[in-house]
Amino acid sequence: MNSILKIIKSRGAIVFAGLAISVFLLVMTGRTIKWEVVTNAFKSAVWLPWVPLAVFTYMVGMLLRGLRLQQLVGNEANLTVATASNIIAVGYAVNNILPARLGEFARAGMLAERTGLPYALSLTVTFLERLLDGLTILSLFVIASFITPTQDWMRNASQIAALAFAMVIPCVMMLALFPQMSLSLISQVSHPFGRKLHHKALAITTQVTRGFSCLRDAGSAMVVLFLSFLIWGVEGLMFALVMPCFLMLFSPVKALAVMSFTNLGILVPSTPGYLAVYHRCCSEALQAVTSQQGAGMLTPFLPADVLRVIMPVSVNMVDPSTAISYAVVVHLIFYATVTIWGVIAMARYGMELGTTAAMAWEAKPVPLQELEAQAHNFALITSTPVVKNEVLCFKKTPFWRSLTEAMVLPAEEHQLPLCEEERARALEDATDFLCREISSLPPKLAGMLKIGTIGFRVLAALISFNTFENLSLKRRSAIVNAWSYGKVSLTRKLFKPLRSLALLAFFENEAVQAALEKAAGAGANPPLKAPEEGAIAVEKSEAAT
Amino acid sequence: MSQIEKKERGQVLIIGSGAGGTTTAITLAEAGFDVVVLEEGARHPLTSYGQPPTKAMNQLYRNRGMMPIMGSVPIGYVEGRCLGGSTEINSGFWHRLPPEFLLRWQARFGLQDFSLEALDGHFAWAEDKLKVQDRNGDWPKSTQVFQRGIEAMQWSAQEVRRAASGCVNTNACAAGCPKGAKQGMSVAMVPEAESLGARFITGARAKLIIKHGNKVTGVLADITKPDGSSDLVRIDADYVFVCAGPTQTPALLRKSGIKEHIGDTFQIHPMLKVSAVFDEDIDAHKSVMPLLQVKEFWPDISLGGSFFSVGHLAINLADNWLTTSDVIQNYRRMASYYVGVRGTGAGTVRASLTGDGEAALKYELSDVDIRHLSQGLARLSTLLLAAGAREVYPCVFGLPKITSELNAVRWLDESLPRSSLSLTTVHGFSTCPIGERPERCAADSFGKVHGLKNLYLSDASMLPDSPGINPQGTIMAIARRNALHFAETHNQQGT
Fold first, then answer.
1. Does B419 touch chain A if contact means CB atoms closer than 8 Å?
2. A436 vs A217 pLDDT, higher one
3. For residues A376 and A446, which has the higher predicted lDDT (pLDDT)?
4. pLDDT value at position A303?
5. How sure is the predictor about B7, in pLDDT bands with cuts at 50, 70 and 90?
6. 8 Å CB contact of A496 and B422
7. Using CB atoms and an 8 Å cut-off, which of residues 475-494 of chain A contact chain B?
8. What is the number of structural domains in chain B?
9. Which chain B residues have a beta carbon less than 8 Å from that of A78?
């Protein structure tokens, strides 16, 4: 209890502002509602099978959120999807019980506690999730607005949100992609304000850039982005599944617009469980999207049949009382589901609500003053945990295995006396070495190499009607040799380092060297061939240019 | 980390423990300064040295050996990242700076107090520390055949002295000498510096130099702890010496906002390798690399021996693998050599904008470099064929092998096509040239960075220009000279 009071005390202004907004909206909403109509709406509602389906859909969404969190901290910690989902559920549950989105802090605290990550880093990950959510919701709202007519005031509200995100995104990208530059910049800016502030600014920058590190790899950034869209697509489906309860036609597009607007509204800290704010946003959005027929900006471009499928014409404007009933049910589904889930998770981890929320404060780093008192010439600014899972930007996949094989194996007539197992192991080791080495390239070169290999794979697939790794060794060798030894200098430059690294590892392998020794001992050295002259004629023309 | 826990005051902070950093550390510790050395790499015991190249690259090399220099001809470049820096992975070859270069540098860069006599004592000091000497005993076979070729061509050559007393031919120079014969900095000099009170903190990566006005007030560094986690620390020091090497020193300075004449004049010794097959067994994979260098065409062109292993032979053959893959079975009868040229092209080192500001290296070969490489290939091939080589395999795409002198001398008059060259280098320098010419120098004659009161340089980056020889001796001698000058100037003896 003390912990909760501590949080409320230290975040007093936000808490009271949230409560004030909620009271105001409750009053405003209550004045416009005809309560007898609400009662009738509930009486005539069809609950089955829509509500259980909506609950199930929401739970799927929670698991997807867990999957995304797992991806976001994948480099830093080993977290199962179940634990990650539980952490999110605990955060949401605390949000449902405490005001001002204090659950976010509890969630960061629990993430720190479960993974051993510094609290600041956990908070950064949580912030990144929120940012991704905001961006995804905004994108979905824009997409939905193209398809379904929306009111001007909704678009205006979204534009304000878009403006806020537009200001945040460059900062995030700067911190994610240019960590060293960010550190230098922050150091320069904060240095004149004294040592303490300078250190604090550097510590926060360090943790934040580390938290955003998952965005540096294009692949993992794409996965996270895809998961974000999936999460909110599923959330939209949950909104759509509640529509038939109140005799509205099942319309995922309109539901998506309602979901987007509602969730944009609750991004601002407010009451526990977003009470009133959620209901107001949801009911207004539902009325707005059902107030006009048609398919928004797409109407002139789509045939009538298609329009009827994506935008059922019989969705008429929902009256305010039905809209509020709809909002109450949608809210209840998410509120009850996540609160029960969160409470069970807290119980499972043996924690009380207050303890979980208080983690946010307990996990703060040691005050700098203590360290500085020990030695003024050597000051610890912040600590970052070990990167648990080394992330290679070139992962050892069947493609790289098959490429290595195609690059290193000598021509058939010069095959080494290696047994199948030795050969396979040598190739495996060579592939592993190759992937590690090229992953160590400076980021710019690694990026260029990635683009080059993607181009190679695409072209190889186009000319062979099959993926490179599924081709025969002979075919693969032919393609690789055409790229490695063709007339195009760029493709030769692409393959030179790859082949060199693969050859180095393959021929440094003990079994391969033993096979070479054996071949030499057996007098298998091939006779030296007659001189070849003028083989460089092709390159002469390049020299001339 | 125990060193951190001590939290002692560091009056002189040295970034980097290679040839320049360790020499500076010993000299200043002797002079009574409180010295702390930050080394990004780890401290490795001798027992962990001598691993196969693929493992050593991961253990001892920066970026696992992946630091290509970009340009119209990408050039493979490696440097060490461990206690002792690149001295742990080089061949221990030792040269004194030739008088010709000493005079050229004086003339071009206005170096003060830079005479042969002034440097002589410093070279002698370093040679004594590293037990530099001529080889005792027989030459390895790869050197013998090279000598045969030199005699046949009647060219001038010299046996290179090495900082490797007691070498027993493990052929592990590039993977750290497991016998401790090669005198990398970690063998004797780092322990000596430690006995004088210097503290070496390994796993410490300098991220930023913090300035206030024209004074450096501290350094931000990431210190990796044994469990893999890391601490961002600020280390305050009265004086900071940046000795992080030719690529990392300019990168660190530039990302710290110190940019005047920093990283604008990157120089290298481009090298073209060849492998030759003889009728007799050479067993180059079991012996130290060839120890003779042809000086007939120096300083523009040098010919010498290259590190050999079966894997490296495969790399040398990779340019024409379709026609040369069978040759690898003759590896016992093969050895590798190089043509090295004194680069006259232009290069830069910049801190990347993205990521952690890694050094981005660029170098554009000049037409003169290409001519020298072509002529060097012609001469080296002629020498090897005269020595009895049946075939010579250059790292040149489209030129699988040279089998006759007539084939070889063609390249005396013709230039190899740029796009067909596969070049490497292990010598980088001149990214922060010292001297008294403010229009081209980053620091004064004794390494003090222009415009800053207490920031100094002391590594390969300070060499004003390409020296045309293995630079370790020159780096150590100048670092010793500069550190002594610093100690005298700051009157700290015996404190």
1. yes
2. A436
3. A446
4. 66
5. very low
6. yes
7. 481, 484-485, 489, 492-493
8. 2
9. none
Tell me which residue of A332, A101, A333, A154 sits closest to A260, measured CA to CA.
Answer: A154
Q: Report the residue of A75, A184, A490 to disrupt the B interface, i.e. the one with the largest count of B CBs within 10 Å.
A: A184
Contacting residues of A for B221, CB less than 8 Å apart: none
- Please give the Cα distance from B481 to B28 (Å, whole number): 11
Q: Tens of pLDDT along B405-439?
A: 999 999 999 999 998 999 999 999 999 999 999 89
Test B318 with A377 for CB contact under 8 angstroms. no
Phi, psi of A379 (to 5 degrees): -115, 130
B427 is catalytic: yes
Tokens of A156: 């205006």
In percent, how much of chain A has pLDDT > 70?
A: 73
Token pair, residue A236, equals 């939209």
Residues 177-216 of chain A with CB under 8 A from chain B are 177-181, 183-184, 187-188, 191, 199, 202-203, 206, 216
Sheet holding A378-384, edge to edge: A378-384, B230-236, B215-224, B204-212
* Residue B393 maps to a domain: yes
Q: How far is A168 from chain B (nearest CA, A)?
A: 19
B-chain residues within 8 Å CB-CB of A492? 397, 419
How far apart (Å, rounded) are the C-alpha atoms in residues B174 and B82? 13
User: What does the pLDDT read at residue A128?
Assistant: 83
Cβ distance of B326 and A414 shorter than 8 Å: yes
- Do residues A219 and A231 lie in contact, with contact meaning Cβ atoms separated by under 8 Å? no
The domain spans of chain A are 2-362, 398-519
Which burial class, exposed, middle or buried, applies to B165 when counting CB atoms under 10 A from its CB (0-12, 13-18, 19+)? Answer: middle
Average pLDDT over residues B230-251: 94
Best mutation site among B208, B321, B336, B358 for testing chain A: the one with the most A CBs within 10 Å?
A: B321
Do the Cβ atoms of A399 and A468 come closer than 8 Å?
A: yes
Judge if B405 and B486 occupy the same domain: no
Instruction: Please check whether residues B244 and B374 belong to one and the same domain.
Output: no
Using the Cα atoms of residue B465, residue B467, residue B471 and residue B475 in order, give the sign of their dihedral.
negative
User: Is any Cβ of chain A less than 8 angstroms from the Cβ of B72?
Assistant: no
**Domain boundaries, position B454:** 2-43+82-132+183-258+433-490
Same-domain status, B355 and B449: no
Q: Please tell me which of the candidates A380, A497, A536 has its beta carbon nearest to residue B398.
A: A536
Do B198 and B91 have their domain in common? yes
Q: Tell which of B393, B425, B457 closes a domain.
A: B425
For the segment A360-373, the average pLDDT, to the nearest whole number, is 41
> Is B404 near chain A, with CB under 8 Å?
yes
* Tens digit of each residue's pLDDT (9 = 90 or more) over B26-75: 999 999 999 999 999 999 999 999 999 999 999 999 999 999 999 999 99
Both B247 and B373 in a single domain?
no
What stretches of B238-331 show up as alpha helix (H) in DSSP? 245-255, 310-317, 321-324
Which CATH number fits the domain that encloses residue B12?
Answer: 3.50.50.60
Supply the pLDDT for residue A261.
85
Instruction: For residue A531, list chain B residues with Cβ-Cβ distance below 8 A.
Output: 401, 403-404, 407
Provide the ipTM.
Answer: 0.92
Q: Which residues of B touch A443 (CB under 8 A)?
A: 352, 354-355, 358
**In angstroms, how far apart are the furthest CA atoms of chain B?**
68
| pLDDT single digits (tens) B449-492 | 999 999 999 999 999 999 989 999 999 999 999 999 999 988 64
Q: Which residues from A are below 8 Å from B398, CB to CB?
A: 535-539
Q: Taking a C-beta distance cutoff of 8 angstroms, is the pair A117, A102 a contact?
A: no
Q: Is residue B49 part of a domain?
A: no
Q: Identify the band that residue A436 occupies on the pLDDT scale cut at 50, 70 and 90.
A: very high
Q: Provide the pLDDT confidence category of residue A246 given band limits of 50, 70 and 90.
A: confident
